[in-house]
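Ticket opened by: R.M.
Priority: normal
Category: complex prediction / small molecule

The reporter submitted a protein together with pyridoxal-5'-phosphate and asked that the result be attached to this ticket for the collaborator who will pick it up next week. Submitted input follows.
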Amino acid sequence: MSAEALEDLDDFYRRCSTTLRSEDSELANLLRHEYFRQNNSLVLVAAAGLMDPSVMACTGSVLENITSEGYPDCRFHGGSETVDHIERLAIARAKTLFGAQYANVQPHSGTSANLAVMASLLSPGDKILGLDIRAGGHLSHGANASITGQYFTAIAYGLNAQGLIDYEQVRQLAQRHRPKLIVCGASAYPRRIDFARFRAIADTVGALLLADVSHIAGLIVAKQHPSPIDYAHVTTTSTYKQLNGPRGGLILAGRDAANLVTSGQEPLAQLLQRAVFPLCQGTPNFAAIAAKARALDIAASANFRALIARTVENAQALASELTRRGYSVVTGGTDTHMVLLDLRPTGLTGIAVERALESCGIISNRNTIPGDSNPPKIASGIRFGTNVLAQRGLGPNEMAHCAQLIETAINAMSSSSELTIEMRRRIGSEVLGLCQRFPLPGHVFASRTRDWAGSEAGLASENVSA
Ligand SMILES: *Cc1c(COP(=O)(O)O)cnc(C)c1O
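Result attached by the on-call engineer:
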């Protein structure tokens, strides 16, 4: 393409933003506010990742205009030539990166990926065995509140006294209940998962194994966590967490892809292909598929491996610094990006700490911890993750600084659960200092920062129209 044509395209995307601003200032101001909020907060949400600007260029692109169904070379609409190329590229990159034989890049989310897998491999009422949501499992692994717990007969395994997966219990429950599917993978579990052991248990009872690696997909492709691809019959992941891609999911299969794993006569890969379309989804989101392709390419780079190494190093630094300051870290540390803090010794709830930290610009989320007596909306734990801060370039020294800020906030809460404005200002200005030193990648730090005194009244008080 000529340089001029490319410039026209750049102009087009610039115009997208300026048109929004001139046509709908109310909405444009909300987006602008969010842009500054992200630049000015320390995000320790374990399920978060940042899209590279080149990934974002795909999500907000003309690909959103394409309506088509089916798969490359087998579409139900014309005009699909480019998106066929894009989807093939995404599939090839997913297979190479994960060492998989089969990849489906169409699921709209990690949950949809799990639903598609279950809908295609199971019948209503079949038994599934997954990690208890109160022990760190995901909703879509058989929780009561999820369709997976309502359409299937869900049995849950838990953790041992050290907070580690109780593999002996998994084996016993599998023997007793003979589930058709065992699900491994977690949303709040800071330690390695032994996929080989799960497969051995699945094989003894003739169960299928689904590994959902949504939280640790980056660790896996960077070879900092063993891969489940050839142990699990099927592997699923969200793409917006550690892969730093768009909202969406992937379904992958390794050495069992061509095998007949159910009583039917279709190989696994063929079942999975139909599982997404037409069984569970209609049109794919091609902008998201392009963004997945872009994120997967970045995840194959040496820079990404260095990022993941820093992510783990940071989490370990945060865990040991919090431990040194007398806090109770679940399992005593971490092998991943995640640090779970048991707040029970402090007498504070997860929700109170989450809110207090947020009022200083430190974003995290409350989480139940093993043996929690509080419901998930309150929770006795707080979950931290280092994906985003590692992407911004913060290292172990800054993690020590974060631990100190967290301690300052928690100590100041002991008397009342809300922090004083002075305390918020004090911690908030240190947060802002760190944000300033480590702007979001690809962005310039916005010097028009949040006014801590004014932030109390939220959006309304801010001069978002400036
Ligand atoms: C986050 C998560 C999901 C859900 O992904 P969505 O894309 O938000 O639907 C599924 N499984 C696990 C283990 C997760 O942590």
